[in-house]
Amino acid sequence: MLKLRVRPSGVPTFLLFWISILTVSFSLLSGTAKGAELMINGSFEMGNFTGWTATNAANSFINWNVSGAGSGGGYIPLPVVTSPVHGTRVAWQAIACQAGSSYVLFQQVALPPATTAQLRWRDRFQDNLSEFCGGSGEPVCGTVNYRVDIVNTSNVVLQNLLSITAPANANTDTGWQLRIANLTAFAGQTIRVRFMTTPTVTWDGPGQLEIDAVSLQAPGLTTSASVSVGGRVLDSNGRGISKTTVVMDDSSGRVRSAITNPFGYYSFEDVPTGQTYTLVVLNKRYQFSNPTRVMTVNDAVNDADFNALP
C-alpha cells in the first residue's frame, strides 16, 4: 500500500512541492511589477541607441552597433559572434582602436530621493591578444581595460562597479555574466551608468564587448498608472487566428504571455505605463511580416496587431 508522508497541516509533502512550483511559475508569468524601471531601452530592443549616448574611439576598428545574433566575431579562437541573452538585440563594439582612446556608452538617470535602487546588467568581454600582436609587422602586445562606472553629469567617477584588464599575450573571454550593483547611495542624484573600454596599444586585438539587459530598478517606487495592451493576430485574409501565443517582456526581463481567443484577439491587463515593452507572436503554422513589436506604453493600446504572411 502506498503511504503518503503528511505534514501537520494535513497536506502531503509532494503536493506542497508542486504547489510551490506552480506558485512561482504563476508569479513569473503574471509580471507583477517590482518597482519602476528607470532605464530606457535597456535591452536595445528598439534596434538603436535610444536613451543612450554612444561615443566611438579614435581610429576605431568597429564602432558601437546594435544588432542581433551572429554579428562581429570571425576570428580564431576569439572573439566569437554576438549572442543576445535577452530579447533579440545586443549592443557591442570591437575594442581595437588608437592607444589610450575609449569606446564609451552611457545613460543618464535621475534617481528619485529616498528610494532604494539596484542596477543589473549582462556583459561579455572578449579580447585576442595572443594571435595578432607581437609578430613581424604586428603591433606590440599591450593590455585592454573594460570598466563600468557611476559618474556624475561632468563624467567624474563616483564609484567604479567593475574593472577587468585583458592581459598581454593572452586571450580573454569572460562569457556572459550577470552583474548586480546597489545604487541606493546615489538616491536623489542624477548619475550616468557608463561602460568603457580602453587599450594601451593601437590596434591591439581583435576584441569584442557586448552589453545587454541593463536594468535600473527603484523597488520602492511604483509606476503612476497601469493600462491594458492588446491587439489582434490576423491571417493574410484578415481573419483572426486563434490559440496563438503572444509574449510580452520589459527591459528588465519580466515576461508575460497571452493566448488569442477564437477571433484572434489578445490582451494584457495592468501594464505599467512609462516603460518599453517587446511583443513577440508565436505560431508554428504561420510566419508573420511583423513578428516582433517594440513600443513605449504611455496609454492603453488596442491595435498592436500581427499580420501573417500568405
Q: Termini distance?
A: 59 Å
Number of domains: 2
Number of strands: 19
Named CATH topology of the largest domain: Jelly Rolls
Mean pLDDT across all residues, rounded? 85
Which class of the largest domain in CATH terms? Mainly Beta
Helix amount: under 10%
Helix and strand run: HEEEEEEEEEEEEEEEEEEE
Shape: flat
Q: Point out poorly predicted stretches.
A: 1-34
Task: Look at the helices and sheets and give the structural class.
Answer: mainly beta
Main β-sheet, in a few words? 7 strands, antiparallel
**Reported CATH architecture of the largest domain:** Sandwich
Describe the structure.
The chain is mainly β and 310 residues long. It folds into 2 domains: 36-218, Sandwich (Jelly Rolls), CATH 2.60.120.200; 226-307, Immunoglobulins (Immunoglobulin-like, Sandwich), CATH 2.60.40. Helices cover 6% and strands 40% of the residues. The protein is built from 1 helix and 19 strands. The protein has one helix spanning 13-30, and strands at residues 36-37, 53-55, 65-67, 90-93, 103-110, 118-128, 144-151, 157-166, 171-173, 177-182, 190-199, 207-218, 226-234, 245-250, 255-259, 265-272, 275-282, 292-297, 306-307. Strands 1, 3, 4, 6, 9, 10 and 12 form a 7-stranded antiparallel β-sheet that branches. A 5-stranded antiparallel β-sheet has the order 2-5-11-7-8, with no helix packed on it. The protein has a 4-stranded antiparallel β-sheet with strand order 15-14-17-18. Strand 7 (144-151) and strand 8 form a beta hairpin. The longest helix is centred in the N-terminal third of the chain and has 18 residues, at 13-30. The chain is flat, with a radius of gyration of 23 Å. The model is unreliable at 1-34 (pLDDT under 50).
